[in-house]
């Protein structure tokens, strides 16, 4: 792996980075950025696992997080633990592994580095109090599926009735545990992970509102150059003076919720590095 750089904020940074959601597939985008040395944006924005990748980058501990997860997935062995569930344990190992990887990234100075890094903004989404949770979550999932099938990249300006959302900045966290909770909130996908209830809200995956969260950036960052990294093959808009969308040209090796295949994770990293070379000229032209 390429060694982590020390994250340094500069108001003169000429670009911001947006990382779409997509579970383990988001490793593709982070690997592309690392290969090209694009680890010092003016701002980061992410949702679901894309937000986790942004936190790993801003903490300066990408290698630490990836190595920890590789080891955990090698020991995990499978994505569904029927035997443990039959004994009263967890059916899905994902949330404990996810939490532990995030906590590891923020240990040993990672949280302190994050606090000094450029803003990391993420989308939180929730079911409003008083609305039927299952029905609203199912409606949001159907709506997301329709957008995906139609090739619509961004979510609607206003979410479906019964859903709320906000932008939250990781640097506002009181401690590392709050960052971990918020990353889990923006990634909440029942039954693989729980839907956490807090402050009268039931959190759901932020991607159900906006899976490509350009809107999470500040107005100043949105007005500047923005590199938008998708996590699956998707027809992308043509580049403009201020926005460049990049997507894998074929499905990446690591499926969204595969927490038991370290070889596929390494293959996805390699795909991201290869994509960086294919897109290097276009990115350099965009940033010039």
Can you give a write-up of this model?
This protein is of the alpha/beta class. 42% of the residues lie in helices and 13% in strands. It is built from 10 helices and 8 strands. Strands 1, 2, 3, 4, 5, 6, 7 and 8 form an 8-stranded mixed sheet that branches.
Distance between the termini: 27 Å
Quick one: biggest sheet?
A: 8 strands, mixed
Structural class from helices and strands?
Answer: alpha/beta
Tally of helical runs: 10
Task: Tell me the total number of β-strands.
Answer: 8
**What integer value in Å does the Rg equal?**
18 Å
The averaged pLDDT comes out at 93
What is the H-and-E element order?
EHEHHHHHEHEHEEHEEH
Oligomer: single chain
**Helical proportion, percent range:** 40-55%
User: Can you tell me the residue ranges where pLDDT is under 50 for at least 5 consecutive residues?
Assistant: 1-13
Strand content: 5-15%
What would the principal axes of the Cα set say about the shape? globular
Features:
288 residues; alpha/beta; 8-stranded mixed beta sheet; 10 helices; 42% helix; globular; disordered N terminus
């Amino acid at each position: 792996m390429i060694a982590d750089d020390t994250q340094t904020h500069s108001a003169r940074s000429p670009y911001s980075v947006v990382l779409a959601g997509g579970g383990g597939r988001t490793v593709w985008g982070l690997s592309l950025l690392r290969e090209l040395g694009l680890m010092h944006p003016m701002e980061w924005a992410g949702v679901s696992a894309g937000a986790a990748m942004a936190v790993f980058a801003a903490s300066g501990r990408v290698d630490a997080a990836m190595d920890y997860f590789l080891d955990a997935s090698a020991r995990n062995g499978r994505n569904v633990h029927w035997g443990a569930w039959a004994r009263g344990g967890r059916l899905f190992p994902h949330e404990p592994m996810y939490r532990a990887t995030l906590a590891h990234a923020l240990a040993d100075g990672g949280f302190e580095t994050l606090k000094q890094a450029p803003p990391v903004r993420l989308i939180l989404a929730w079911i409003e109090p008083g609305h039927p949770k299952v029905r609203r979550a199912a409606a949001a999932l159907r709506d997301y599926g329709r957008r995906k099938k139609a090739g619509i990249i961004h979510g609607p300006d206003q979410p479906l009735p019964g859903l709320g959302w906000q932008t939250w900045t990781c640097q506002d966290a009181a401690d590392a545990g709050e960052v971990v909770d918020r990353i889990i909130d923006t990634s909440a996908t029942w039954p693989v992970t729980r839907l956490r209830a807090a402050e009268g809200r039931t959190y759901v995956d932020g991607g159900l509102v906006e899976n490509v969260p350009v809107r999470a950036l500040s107005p100043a960052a949105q007005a500047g150059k923005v590199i938008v990294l998708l996590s699956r093959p998707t027809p992308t808009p043509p580049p403009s003076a201020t926005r460049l969308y990049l997507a894998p040209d074929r499905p990446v090796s690591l499926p969204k919720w595969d927490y038991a295949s370290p070889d596929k994770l390494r293959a996805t990293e390699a795909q991201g590095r290869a994509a960086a070379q294919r897109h290097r000229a276009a990115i350099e032209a965009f940033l010039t």
